[in-house]
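Sharing a chain and its predicted structure for anyone who wants a worked example. Both blocks are below, sequence first, tokens second.
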Amino acid sequence: MRRLAAAAVLLMLTACAPGGCSGTGAPMAPAEPDTAAPPASPPGPPAPEPVTWPHEPAGALHPGSGSGATDPTLWAGGMRFPLESGPAYANSQVYGYGGWQAPGPGGQCDPRNYAYPWRDNFCETRSWSNSKCPAGRGHQGQDIRPATCEKKVHWAVAAEAGRISSIGSYTLTLLGESGRIYRYLHLDMAEVNALFPTQASRAVTRGQRIGRVSDDFGGNATTIHLHFEIKAPVTDGETAAVIFVPTYTSLVDSYSRLLNAAA
């Protein structure tokens, strides 16, 4: 009898399924595989739309102010916008309200000067030599009004790392590490000289404050604005020279990055 009972127990143990036995000793059904998908993560916030602003294309000067340069070249790709913060308004000082070719009554602080769209004024009619202009002469940079019509308030900054190579009566010249030259006109020159009193102090980093926008013009006054120029190495055939190049496209690029917090 004992041998029969032991044999029965052994038979029950060997009859169990690999997954084990039920409480009655019967083989357990194999477990169903877990095929349920993990819970989905909640959707993140949508990517913000890029910040844009109204601006005319390169070369679209104020009507009657000359023939603009439509060159689309990004002459200073990656440069820092030359004002520390926006908004800023690229437009003509001569053909804007308060200028000597103004479209109507109004002073330089007229709100219409502090509104979009931007407008190019490189090559605007001037007597200065400029080989990049259709006429061979014209305005050598771009005029930019700061956020408000207040002088000695809004900071200009270095477009790239480099060295301030000269400080004149109304012009600061920055030689960038790229080999490009940037000129800033009409800053508060007394402050500029105080900020950079010696040659040793004139190495600057990209985005460093270099002076505040004013109306200095060599003992005279102009409108409150920054006149900004770029000179770049250009090869024409076999001749290489550092010349004034159109600024507008580079300013559009750098201002877009400033508005989108990617300056």
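Comments welcome. The first strand starts at residue 89 and ends at 90.
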